[in-house]
Amino acid sequence: MSQLLDPQAVTRLYMGNEAIARGALEAGVAVVAGYPGTPSSEIVQNLASVARERNLYVEWSVNEKVAVEVAAAASFTGLRSLCTMKQNGVDVAADFLLHLGLSGVRGGMVLAPCDDPGGLSSANEGESRQFARLLELPLLEPGDFQEAKDMIKWAFDLSEELGCVVMVRSVTRLSHASGDVILGELPSVEKKANFKHRPLPQDPQSGPMHSFPVPQKHQAQQRKLERAVEIFEASPFNTYEGPEQPELLVVTSSACTLYAREAIDLLGVQDRVGLLKLGTTWPLPPKLLGKHLKSAGQILVIEEVIPFLEENVKILASEMVLEIGPKKIMGKRDGQLPMVGELNPDLVIAALAGILDTPYQASSAGYAEAAAQVGEAGAPPRELAFCAGCPHRASLWSLSRALELDGRDGFVCGDVGCYSMAIFPTGFQLTKTLHAMGSGIGVTSGFGKLEQFGMGQPALAICGDSTFFHAAIPALVNAVHNQTNATLVLLDNSGTAMTGFQPHPGLPYDAMGNEAIPIDPVKICESLGAKVRIQDPFDLEQTEKCLLELLAERDGVNVMILRKPCALSPERKKTKDFEMSVDKQACLGESCGCNRLCTRVFKCPGLVWDSTSQSASIDEVVCIGCGVCASICPVGAIKKAEAAK
Amino acid sequence: MKTKSILHSDPFNVIITGVGGQGNVLASRVLGNMALAKGLSITIGETFGASQRGGSVMSHLRLSKKSSVSPLIPKGKAHVVVALEPTEGIRILKEYGNPQVSIVTNTRPIHSLGVICGDQQYPSPEKMRQWIESLSKQAWLVNTTDAAMTLGNPIYGNIMMLGIVVGAGLLPLDRDDFQKALDRLMPASKIEKNLKAFDIGAGMAAGNC
User: Fold this and answer.
1) Which segment of A78-87, A377-386, A407-416 scores lowest on mean pLDDT?
2) pTM for the structure as a whole
3) What CATH number is attached to the domain comprising A312?
4) What is the tens place of the pLDDT at every residue in A43-62?
5) What is the domain count for chain A?
6) Which of A10, A71, A345, A591 is paired with A1 by a 20 to 30 Å CA distance?
């Protein structure tokens, strides 16, 4: 099934992440580690699926810092290694990476973060590019799918030549977009690891790996960057298309290259605008930049998200001002392009049309008017919702009821996972703080100590099972040690559900499908001295009762584990526990006094409002038969019957 | 030898839209592989992941004889819209449509939370037909969900839609291309049902719905 191992020279439709994975295979990668996060997850998944055939070791690590450490170990032995994560994963890994920059690497090591401009599947739109400058590591950015493959392969060579980690940054519109890729050769699968830790003065490939003495190591690191610049001056990944003396020079990289090319075509300004596409974006090659900056009076930098490239171009332009002359450099800082969110062809068209004074209309005025007449009525906005049968809806329902009955204005501190949607109506807007992975319990640990200052509101933390291992354990240790009153509700849905069911340390198998040792969160919490209760969240009555007891106790750290597999998990997806129906005679609709609890408050997409009969109704295409809604109807009009298995 | 197909426009832009869980991503992957088999260059832009739980999902598919292009289609530049849910089709027409656009749409609603709780109104079938027709050159409105249920699962609606698109001659692709794409993308056990779904769709196109 996998087209990842298809032969050389054929053309395949690859998702950007598949292209990155194939590039790593063509480079002879041996070890791959990462932590799941949209839009990066398919890189590790794809490589895990061919681990046996290609003699790889592939793991989902407990978090991004450990993933980089695992990949670095392979590099120290001369093997090639790849590490992937989403943008904020680099924040988690940054401490180790800072030191790895100083110690250097041996076997080629590539860090491939995938950023999510616009936060399409993220709680932030952070920039991993900043880390290249901060950590003093070379940065590459592919401009299309073929380059995503070719550049990864080249990055391994570059990493070995320089002796440092090379960053290859992707974005959602490459990682999760697809295009055709011509495949290259796959090398032999033989690989040999040996860490030469005894120092041999003549051999940089031996000796211990660390950052001491710091100034010397730092100087060596900066020499590597100087060498990178020399190589970048001649890199085939930096290209120029357009007239010799353009009226406007566009400097761009990554997916923005494709937007810029489309905008230039649609405006028909190919003879007025030059396009300098950069694949090597940090450190910038000054000779190449100088040559092109000199050719045009005005420059527009197009990039996502912050003006990183723009600022670096401006630094070079000011350093070279005597040779290239004064330039007008436009981009984000002057508002030609927005400072936030992802770009698209239309935003680039608008900027170019304004600068070049060229009129552009997306469609005819008549059509736009007809579309405006349809308005929102034709396509009501579709807000995010937990899936039909999602255990989080049931868990949050009980939490919401318990907090209300408790009556002390309590609230929930959340973190990152599908349950982040508890800030929205689908999760009853229960979560009042939402930041990083594991932050729910960290923040709760802090709130719990504020009784000293008169705070009487109980705070509850929620956290998913994968997140628990990733970042919640140290916060839990902190809460116990500092004698905080804190409650952690662990929403255990048996996998890293949001990103596609990647295994985590709580499961008995690993990324490659081999047996693994499952770590039991119950034992971890109990060993810390926390009281642990386990509940099925679909049993609303018991769950609510249990939560109320926990809230009343407020005596040290309590953990409640609400355990039910995700509705989309392979084990639940094909089974229906119940056939659901609504007794139309029993449902009193608007006159019931329940305020349409099922459709107006509980809001499962499997339950719809039938405006003809003025009663609730089951949407049999959407409902997966979890049976939970039968427990919330005050008059028992929602019926559940055992489904035939 | 690969045969180059005729594209009325280069790039030729197709948008497949629907609600999370309707099989949008697979449909775009199948269509992309069909075009690839014809020797065309394909770029697909997709939005999926957590942000799509219950939300709108769209795939931008671009066929070209040249090279990879922007994975996002500029506003007003769609040539064909395939909608697995009717209001999602209208949403796309409003933004990406033009007087020349063709649309194939499922008529079976999936209610948004706003509609379920009564804050919003779901438009009537008559109103939807009127809007869809006013915003397109030609439109096919079919209840593919009901037809797919006869195959045992509403998910087959996505492949049925591809059958309609190909049957109506909206793309320079044929049933052979579909079969080749299926062979590449699906386990043997799933091929028969998907071929059947495709054929039902192609029949619907011929039937002038």
Assistant:
1) A377-386
2) 0.96
3) 3.40.50.920
4) 999 999 999 999 999 999 99
5) 4
6) A71
